[in-house]
Amino acid sequence: MPHCLIEVSRALENVLDPKELVALVHEAAMGSELFKPGEVKVRLSLYDHYSVGGSQSDFIHVIFYLLAGRTDEQKKALSMAVVGALVERLPDVESVSMDVRDIRREAFSNRRQYLDAR
To answer: Which residues form a coiled coil (predicted)?
Structure first.
């Protein structure tokens, strides 16, 4: 169920193939051992228009949504694993960050739940 959104400056696709970037983040998330195979969904958005500290410096920001219930330590370990993989692969990118956000179970819905409720 986890949803991972990768936001990057478009220029980075000249340095790293977008498919490789998605795979890199997916593998780092799976390496955390917090998720079962097939659970993590990763999407990538490339940005043409942005400002990083007032300049057009390259950036990567990852937003990781998961159902509430993980500890802060688990979320920090996930964040450090993904950021670490990105920094190792793209050492020249200064702005690399990740935010882990809880999804309230009470408010979350998906296709399966919808069909089960019909």
So the answer is: none
